[in-house]
Design brief:
It comes from Halobacillus seohaensis. 38% of the residues lie in helices and 15% in strands. The chain is α/β, with parallel strands linked by helices. The chain is globular. Bound molecules: pyridoxal-5'-phosphate. Pyridoxal-5'-phosphate binds next to α3 and α4.
Length: 395
């Protein structure tokens, strides 16, 4: 891919802008599980599709290039990408990981890796002293998610990378919330970037997919081996859908981020809202670090209602956002972390992380921000009226 163009242009004009053989202006979906071999001395570029498929390879090349890496990998889901990457570790190794990591990643570490003798310490990644003191002689990976989910805490990627390098550890970054459009961890020294491409990268709530990218040839080789060994690869059709979604990534994120900022401001001025979490606010404790390491605040925000009991009424009253698990789509998605993304976390751990019962997360889509704000305004008005009514009845 040519580096002379900006990221926005490179989403469209890259090595796969047309098919070399036919000139088709869309990557062909190569629906084959195996490939003819002329003879056993000449297997050709592809043999069996778990090991390699041209459609998947096009997506893998694309994510590698967009993340400023040298090698990319496409997996059946974000969790497949993440769990396969953890297989780079061995029995007796230790990982230091953000305590407010994605619920599925938490479950993988807490319930699964543990059984294979891989130890972990959850830390507040925004506190570098805490990170440094969690590193042990057998620590192999520092695992970051920034902004974190659902509280949008910001970790200083460069600072953690520095700690990792000084201690012979790798740094993995889950870049799902930002995408390479807004943040490129490999450029900041990270070793491996991971994605749930289900979210912003594919962007249309129509595919579950995971991606990984690295700029280290040793890691690329090991991860390629693991991808083939575990076999949780992304199918050709789904690869194509992710590539189609990628083309509009930049303009989708621009629009959604602009709207998210307006909505975050609206909510923070509302009397029924206790707190709004959005890294674009200068009052957000991580805002300057975030501004340094990324080029936008993104399209996800969380907010806490003053009364936990109002969550149900509000989520039922809103007309526009889809009430669902997920984020990063063309349609806005409202979710309830306590019962959805973080339901797999023990309650005590969840509350310790501030994921209380009054917290809602909003992933802003491509609707008009005015319509979204009007919808929220109406919903909150209803919640307020219900509250006044029940107060009158109980008096
Ligand atoms: C959704 C998500 C994942 C898991 O990805 P799947 O595609 O659902 O397997 C991992 N990390 C983050 C930050 C996510 O939002």
């Amino acid at each position: 891919m040519t580096d002379k163009h900006t990221f926005q242009t490179r989403l469209l004009h890259n090595d796969h802008k047309f098919d070399r053989q036919t000139g088709a202006v869309s990557v062909p979906i190569q629906q084959a599980s195996t490939f003819h071999q002329k003879d056993f001395d000449q297997p050709g570029d592809y043999d069996y599709a778990r090991s390699g498929n041209p459609t998947r390879e096009a997506l893998e090349d694309t994510i590698a290039s967009l993340e400023s890496g040298t090698k990319g990998f496409a997996f059946a889901s974000g969790m497949a990408a993440i769990s396969t990457s953890f297989m780079l570790l061995s029995k007796g190794d230790h990982v230091v990981i953000s305590e407010d990591v994605y619920g599925g990643t938490f479950r993988m570490i807490y319930n699964v890796l543990h059984r294979f003798g891989i130890e972990h310490t959850f830390v507040n990644m925004t506190d570098l002293h805490e990170v440094a003191s969690a590193i042990q002689p057998n620590t192999k990976v520092l695992y970051i998610e920034t902004p974190s989910n659902p509280l949008l805490n910001i970790t200083d990627i460069k600072a953690v990378v520095k700690l990792a390098k000084a201690n012979n550890c790798l740094t993995f970054v889950d870049n799902t919330f930002m995408t390479p459009s807004l943040q490129r961890p490999l450029e900041l020294g990270a070793d491996l970037v991971l994605h749930s491409a289900t979210k912003f990268i594919a962007g249309h709530s129509d595919v579950v997919a995971g991606l990984a990218a690295t700029n280290r040839s040793d890691l690329a080789e090991e991860l390629g081996f693991l991808q083939n060994s575990f076999g949780s690869i992304l199918g050709a059709h789904d690869c194509w859908l992710v590539m189609r979604g990628l083309k509009t990534l930049d303009c989708r994120l621009k629009q959604s981020s602009e709207s998210a900022e307006q909505i975050a401001s609206f909510l923070s001025n509302h009397s029924l809202v206790d707190e709004v979490y959005y890294p674009g606010f200068t009052s957000h404790p991580g805002s300057s670090t975030h501004a340094y390491q990324s080029s936008g605040a993104g399209a996800v925000l969380s907010f806490r209602l003053k009364n936990e009991a109002d969550v149900r009424n509000l989520s039922q009253k809103l007309e526009l956002p889809v009430f669902a698990v997920s984020l990063g789509a063309v349609e806005s998605i409202l979710s309830y972390p306590a019962k959805m993304s973080h339901a797999s976390m023990p309650e005590e751990e969840r509350l310790k992380r501030g994921i209380t019962d009054g917290l809602l997360r909003l992933s802003v889509g491509l609707e008009s921000p005015d319509d979204l704000i009007r919808d929220l305004e109406k919903g909150l008005q209803y919640v307020g009226a219900r509250r006044n009514l029940s107060r009158m009845v109980s008096n």
